[in-house]
Structure formats: C-alpha cells, structure tokens
C-alpha cells in the first residue's frame, strides 16, 4: 500500500498546480517526494535544509504575505523543536497554515527518542485555534489534506506509517459510528481503528472512529453515550495516553461517567525495536486492547 507520506507528496504536487496561494516548505525530509513539484514551481517549493525553527518562521512569513503555507517534516521536528515559533509566528500573529508531520509516535523507532513524538497533539492543545486531523489511511490523508488547504485556519495533519486496511469516508467533520452497543463507547483515533475493531469483536459496545480530533466533537460522543446503558468511555489514541480525557470530561460534565484513556505511555522505551514492537509494548495491539477495554467495561477479556 502507498504510504500516507507518499500520498502527501503526490497530492501536494497536484494541489500546487491548482492553487497559486499554496507553498510547500521543507526541511530536507521528504524532499524526494517533491522533485517534480520543485521543477514545476521552483518559487513555491522551498527546502530550507535542517533548520526547523526557520521552517516554521518562514511559513509564518508566507502566511503574512497572503500565501497558504504547507510545512512538513517529522513530528518531533515540526511541533516539539520549533514550538516557540509555532506559538508566536502562527498563533500570536493570527495567521493560518498547514503543518503536515510524518513519523507519528514511534514510526522511526530505530532513530531513537529524538525521532519520536507521542506528545505532539497534547502540546498543540496548549495553544488556541488548532484543528488536528489524524488520518488512518492514505485515502483519508488525501481527503483531509485537501480539506485543510482550502481554509484559512491553523491545521495540523498527523501522518503515520501505521494504517488501517481500508479507508473510511472522512471529511474533516465528526466521528463515524461503526458499531452500536449498550455496554459503553470506544472512540478509536486514526490508524488504531483496525486494532480496536479486532479487540472489540463480539463485545456489546459502540465504536466511534475519529480522524478529526480537534476541535473535539463532544456532541457526537454525548449522543453515543446517551444511546448506551452506561456512561463509560474508552479513548484509544495513537499518541500520549489521556490526551483527550479532559475533552471527554467537558462533553459529559453534567452526568456521572468514567473514562479510560489508552495510548502511548509516558515512559521512554529505550530498547527501541520496531514500530510493531512499540504498539505491543504500549498495549495498543488487539490483544492488549481487548484485555484493558473488557476489564474496564466489565465485558470480559
């Protein structure tokens, strides 16, 4: 299957030819995906070298000049390293742009902890006005990218090498209801959907699938909870565990509820291994999820 990062390159190459407002700003990473685009649009495909703070500041400058900048590198170098520039050059200046990361939480596990970014969405949560898309398939990545570049707002698109087997019809709006049940609600985010579906097979639970996680659709979650027999919610997120628990609490603030936030743990796994090994080590494979979901909801493991 074509990766999300490959699809990002082909989609942006097409979009650059359709909209003269768009400019792609790179810091070496994925430059090979834009060779043809750079030939066609040499003034709108800009590779600044390994200078991530400059990457974000240059994007902010392009936005101030009326462009719609699309900035790209690994998540740890796009959100964490230049966070001050993200905060000031976009948020404080009041301009929009699209940040497209790859690498996710541990896709580049062989690169060590410098190349891991499980806290990126939580970090962006400290800022106002960011839309966050977390696609689970290359087709979804293309749909959400096309949606993102049309706007004027601040958008983060989080790409991953981990993908679901098939795409769902996502459009930048609320979660999809994939299964309905009475014993609780499980909200699966992006590329962890297949593991959640396998983990909840045969369980009497509602499964929601979200690829747009900010703003958080509290109304959709509340509707799913209201249709169940309990107000028990399990979040399964491909980044830091508990990132969205506060959003769930706010959505259900007027009714007693329980929430279990599953995701990447805070402890650094120093035996870096493969991405699949990280999935299992964090309990995010189907077997690990089934035990924790079943135990929390009382549906059995």
From TrEMBL:
- Pfam families from the entry? Transket_pyr
This protein is called: Transketolase
Q: Which domain of life is it from?
A: Bacteria
SUPFAM superfamilies in UniProt: Thiamin diphosphate-binding fold (THDP-binding) (SSF52518), TK C-terminal domain-like (SSF52922)
InterPro entries in the record, alphabetically? PDH/Transketolase (IPR051157), THDP-binding (IPR029061), Transketo_C/PFOR_II (IPR009014), Transketolase-like_Pyr-bd (IPR005475)
User: Where do the Transketolase-like pyrimidine-binding domain residues begin and end?
Assistant: 2-167
């Amino acid at each position: 299957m074509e990766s999300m990062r490959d699809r990002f390159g082909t989609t942006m190459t097409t979009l650059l030819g359709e909209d003269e407002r768009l400019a792609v700003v790179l810091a070496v990473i994925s430059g090979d995906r834009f060779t043809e685009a750079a030939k066609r649009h040499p003034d709108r495909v800009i590779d600044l070298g390994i200078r991530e703070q400059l990457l974000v500041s240059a994007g902010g400058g392009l936005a101030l000049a009326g462009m719609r900048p699309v900035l790209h590198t690994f998540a740890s170098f796009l959100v964490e390293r230049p966070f001050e520039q993200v905060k000031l050059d976009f948020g404080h200046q009041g301009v929009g742009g699209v940040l497209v990361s790859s690498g996710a939480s541990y896709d580049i596990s062989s690169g060590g902890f410098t190349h891991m970014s499980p806290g990126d969405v939580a970090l962006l949560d400290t800022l106002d006005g960011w839309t966050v898309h977390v696609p689970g398939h290359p087709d979804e990545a293309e749909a959400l990218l096309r949606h993102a570049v049309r706007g004027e707002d601040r958008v983060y698109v989080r790409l991953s090498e981990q993908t679901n087997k098939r795409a769902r019809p996502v459009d930048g709006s609320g979660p999809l209801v994939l299964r309905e049940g009475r014993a609780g609600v499980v909200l699966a985010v992006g590329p962890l959907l297949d593991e959640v579906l396998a983990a909840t097979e045969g369980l009497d639970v509602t499964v929601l699938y979200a690829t747009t996680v900010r703003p958080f659709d509290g109304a959709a979650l509340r509707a799913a909870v209201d249709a169940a027999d309990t107000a028990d919610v399990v979040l399964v997120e491909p980044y830091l565990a508990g990132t969205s628990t506060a959003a769930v609490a706010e959505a259900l603030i007027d009714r007693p509820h329980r929430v279990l936030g599953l995701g990447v743990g805070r402890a650094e796994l120093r035996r870096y291994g493969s991405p699949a090994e990280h999935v299992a080590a964090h309990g995010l494979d189907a077997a690990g999820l089934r035990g924790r979901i079943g135990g929390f909801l009382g549906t059995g493991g």
